[in-house]
Amino acid sequence: GLFVTDYFTRTPRKLSPFRSFASIELFHFHIPEDTVIAVWNLITFKEQGGTFGDQCPDRSITVYFRSGAPSVINPLHTHFPRDTAVPGSFALTLTWTLPNRTTGVFNVTSPLPGDWFLAAHLPKDEGKISIKGLYEECQYLFQPQLIVQRLVNIAVLYPGYVTEQSMAPHNRSCLYKVFVPSYTSRVQVEVLRCRGAEGCPLWLRVRAKAPPLHNSTALDCREHIPCQLALDLPFWQHWYYVLVEKHPGVPGTISFQVTVQLTDCSQPILARPPFLPSSASMNMPHSFGSAGGLALGDSPPPASPNGTKHLDPNPATSPTGERCWPVRPTLRNELDTFSVHFYIFFGPNVSVPPDRPAVFVINLLPVLDSGGVLNLELRLNVSSLCGENVTVFGCLNHEVPLTSSDNASVTCETESLAGFLLSVNTTASLSRLRIPYPQTGSWYLSLRSLCATDHGFEPCTNVTAEVYLRAYLSPCINDCGIYGQCKLLRTNNYLYAACECKAGWNGWGCTDNSEAFSYGFQLLSTLLLCLSNVMFVPPVAIAVRSHYLLEAAVYIFTMFFSTFYHACDQPGIVVFCIMEYDVLQFCDFLGSLMSVWVTVIAMARLQPVVKQASVLYLLGAMLLAMALQMDRHGLWNLLGPSLFALGIMAIAWTARTIRRRHCYPPTWKRWAFYLCPGALIAAAAVLLYAFVETEENYFYIHSIWHLLIAGSVGFLLPPRAKTRRHLGPLPRRKGCGYQLCVNEQEELGLVDPAVASINSICTS
After folding, report:
1. How many CA atoms lie within 13 A of 477 on its CB side?
2. The domain 519-716: what is its CATH number?
3. Which CATH class is domain 2-152?
4. Going by DSSP bridges, is the β-strand pair 138-152/227-232 parallel, antiparallel, or unpaired?
5. Matching CATH topology for 155-264 and 327-475?
6. Domain boundaries, the chain
7. Which residues contact 262 (CB under 8 A, 6 or more apart)?
8. Which residue of 220, 228, 315, 558 is most buried, as measured by CB atoms within 10 A?
9. Whole-structure pTM over 0.70, yes or no?
10. Residue 305's pLDDT is what?
């Protein structure tokens, strides 16, 4: 065949340590149909400060692969919520081969077509809280690339027709595909008239959606005569691929015929009622063409495809007892993103008769619905059972309904299918099922009622069970509970939702309390963070006593908003917010920086030098508000204003020292008992804040930070300025050789300036 190679790549992204699914990086790819091999090239490199991070430590990177929907991962081995089905995925761990770069390769032979998702993350860290800009952080970047090789012009088999084929000596296999429409209960592939070698040395392999693999359903034609391979309950609305492979070491050309028979379960034997259209032609995709695959009993197409002959059906070899029941559709009602309700016509109460199952279909849209949670709820109306011991079984399957012909069967699995089983009875009348990140397409729910006896389950007689059925799509499981937040995330054009837990709770729905904070611990941490701000009361009293009223107002502002910000910032249920969180955070950060600013400016004692010192206070407030609006967590928001204020203080102290020819402040007691202890306390607070604080010790380390900062302010705030006493009258101002004598009545506007006495001006 002819191969075509396609190449896809994604932009490198920074990986984060795993905390929850909200912290992973998700990549979305699309693999076309007829792909025979897909190769993912996984590139990872380190960066530090804009250059290669050769000095960064090696941290393992875990990558998850899943087809159809994002992977449901659990690297921390936490507990999932009850009634949650966890789909499987494949994980790969990358190791470093170079100091700053590594590459991994992941091959998938005959991958399933459609959406593929890659999820990558770093291992969980110790939770250190780092200040932005304090040092160059090591960044681990991940970039996946996809190379696919697909076949073009694969031969199409038409049901009910024979395709003749000759396999040359240099060829080892022939690949075909056939489309299976809805309401197909059986697919049978047969190899006929094998010539050119003894015993028909061919392998017959069949697989749905993608070309067959070595472990696909196979049949050795040398050992089975006739060479027929049958598949029951095939996937509806999908291509099935047929591979005829020659045994190794067989010389010469082998000729054979291939035919496919589809059993349509919507008609009793082979005839189709005139009012029922052909399910094959009605559900055929556009890529199949106008000829369409035909079930037995359909009229032949206008022109037979090349190399095919019409095969007369043999009723004796066709299964006539199989039939499928009507599938009831559901009405899709979209309320919001990942908030979809599926309503049943004439529901939500449905009747389950004793002689046949009730089948419903739930259609999930591609890409749009795979990022949420599919929820299913069954509730049995016990009053409808008339005292009988009835159990209603529900079987949820993807892409094909599973209805067993055995009336006493309670299984939801076959050799090639695996579904989800639900059951309700008089003892347990409620059953739930949650599927996070479900695969898109059609989901079929089959409900059957059976009566329990001493010998197991048997069909009921004259008892119709009534069941309340609810199916809906939600962003997260139970909205992540009270200890979590459901976040809507986006990667390129793909949306998905995930829970972000708090207060030590973990798990997919924030229901794992193995490391959860108790209520007493939450209350203690809240009280420590809030009441530690009371330490600002002594600095306020000192500022008021020293006539630093502006500084006292700033300290009161800081104490108030820091208290209520930390009361609102708690992760648990001990939370109290008087304003919006963003307003409280901004005011807390602004008050903290303004406290540092006004304290250092007050220490500079600029009043004798700059008469309008309040200009610096106002200028500092405006600049700090602007800086906080740009980046609240940056290092220079705290360091920049502090260094600027310290520079002003140093200039003012140096000027006084030079003018007085004596060290300023002049007394050693001021240095020994106030300035040095205050500076040491402030330095200790900064070191704790920058290098010791983590998520685990935040509540008491940050409380100590409050105590130390407030205590340092009490030490560093200068004493009250001494006022000078004037023993005599102030000298009069002179100008142009005259001494100006100002008449008080004239200055106050009490005398008409036109009749002012000339005695108000006197010579010097």
Report:
1. 25
2. 1.20.1070
3. mainly beta
4. unpaired
5. yes
6. 2-152, 155-264, 327-475, 519-716
7. 159, 160, 178, 180, 181, 184, 186, 187, 188, 280, 293, 295, 296
8. 558
9. yes
10. 45
